[in-house]
Give the backbone structure.
Amino acid sequence: MRRRGTRGGTALPAALAALVVATALVAAVTELARVETLLAEQRQRTSSALAAADGCLADVVAAVPAGWDFAPALAGPDGVAGTADDGTLAAPAGCTATARAAPGPAAPARMLATVTGTANGGRRVVDAVVGRAADPGAPALVWLGAAPAPGAVAGTAALDGTDPTALLAAPYASLATPAPAAAVDAWLAAEGAHVSATGGTAPARTAPSPPVAALGARLAALGAGAAGALPPAGTLPGGTARVAGDLAVLAPFTGAGVLFVDGVLDIHAAFDFSGLVITSGPTRVAAGASLSVAGALWAAGGLDVAGTLAVRLQRAAIDDVDARIGLPRLAVVSGVRDLP
Amino acid sequence: MGIVELLVGTMLALLVLAALTATVATGARLLAVAGARGEVEDTAELALETFLFDARRAGWDPGAAGVAPLVVAAPDAVTFAADLDGDRVVDATSEEQTGWVCARAAQRVSRVVGRQSLPIADGVPACGFRYFDATGAAIAVPAAGLDAPGRARVAAVALDVTLAATGLRGTTARTARVALRRPP
């Protein structure tokens, strides 16, 4: 009788051993893939969070009021220093932001901001040095305190943000308002041919309102004179004028320097100015009248142009005003570092 | 069992074993290649993330001391400065001065923190730095590096790095371009 099952063989043990090794290899490859996937996910999270923190920082800094220093921002939402909300900055959803005074000398004006951004499950913290921009103002040819009203320009508005005497300098934006860029673009599209800008002019931008109250106080402290005492347009250096209340221009007017109207500027004639025209109330140009500015127009109360408005950049005139009274500037990020 | 049966059985067993061995060997090679690829990709990412970290904070100057972001700007080396503690002084022996060096002969990228050199990656057949002005145009850099006026023109720095790993045919190339922040 033949006995079965007692014959020795190597194929089965070898195959089983190979299967075990192959299984171990598959497990190792699977684990490797899992670890790499986890690493990639972590990198994606941290990248998303860093982008969110950077975006938040940009939003927070863009919302800092234009001015000279950062005392209002450091005082918090209530605007009163020494209270519990000091250093709290308004931040968009998904991030937080705080501010503190920068070390060292007071000048140049600056503050430190810490922003925490979260996105996609990640979290990043960014520290930033926030200073004031080099260019005064928005910088824009027309700086408004609110979104322009539909049909605000029934006449024509011609804007030229380039200065042929300063070709290397960046062009000015046509318009700056606190309204979102999309709303300003929509307004410009709706105004159609009533508003035109030369090719070199920078696009309209979003900026906080011009600080007209502080500017008015500044001019009052400097002893600004009457509008009629200003030298004619094109004169450098120009003068400094402040009108306490409305100003109606019923006859041709010319001036240079800075004209601050603490009320409505109502123009019914030819108004030719070089430098900076600042109005706290509406700026109205009646049909048949014209407002021509070589410099910039800061109209906190908005525009109502039935006649002709022409604003072209003249940096020398703006620089003259800046040297004379010290113009406000937007906040900008001048340094950043990632915190662990 | 006859001799013929025995021979056929042996041949079949050998074929099966050979197939299994080949499968296991292929799996082992796959594991090795995947591991090497993962490692080189991780190293490249780590290099870029660290470079971004250093370049982003270059010129950090909370005390308004006039800290220049670049101390050295050469084709194969860059050194960043930052006043991290806000004492208005950049301590060159601390992490306030951080450099990157592409040692082409050694095929190595190193990060130099203060006076301590830390290798970031080995097996680097190509590595270098490029510099751009405010308009985005590349700045020609002499071998000795940019002088102070030249460094003041730099608005962005790029790191180009290529990594190779033993056993891998292809290389991994990465580029990071970082804008420098300067006071207005």
Notes: Strands of chain B lie at 70-74, 77-81, 97-103, 108-113, 116-122, 126-132, 156-163, 172-179. The longest strand of chain B covers residues 156-163.
